Predict the 3D structure of the following.
Amino acid sequence: MAEAAKKLQEVPKKLEAVPAAGAPEKKKFDVLGLVSVLIISLNLAAVVGLGMYMKKVWAKMMEVETKMEEVMQAQKEEEAPPAKEKLAGRAITPPVPATLYPLESFLVNITSDQGPKFLQTQMELELTDSATEEEITKKKAAIRDAVIVLLSSRSYKQIREASGMVTLRRDILRAVNNLLTSGQVREVYFTQFHFN
């Protein structure tokens, strides 16, 4: 009987040692736990990387903002009216306003797709100094001829475009300055510009 009791006690121990049918074996590492740790680690690395990237972007934005403030300050200084400066105890006088020399009106034929057109214009020349005025008076015929040749060489379409007006103004300035020896014309101003 003692032997039968002993055998009955050994049966449950043997059953514990034998795995049940269909039950998976226990592994040393829990796969689910390992995947969880891996996902958490990747998320942490992504957050740290994003934080470092945002720090660089913020630093760059602050640098751009600082540069913009410097540019705005420089622009304000340029726009501000110049204060009277003193140089070695003497006040610096502002530059003398330029002399304007009016030219008589011009009436020229210009080519157009819609038939002949007339351009009537009047302009004034801004001189670098008043001495140039005398030379322009002496060479008035040559200057008028150069301007007429330039105006009549342009088409209606060329002159109507904004870039065409700028080019015409620059060409007149160059042509007049080529005729002068004692001074220069600084700018050409159209005071009248009309098509008929």
Notes: The longest helix spans residues 31-79.
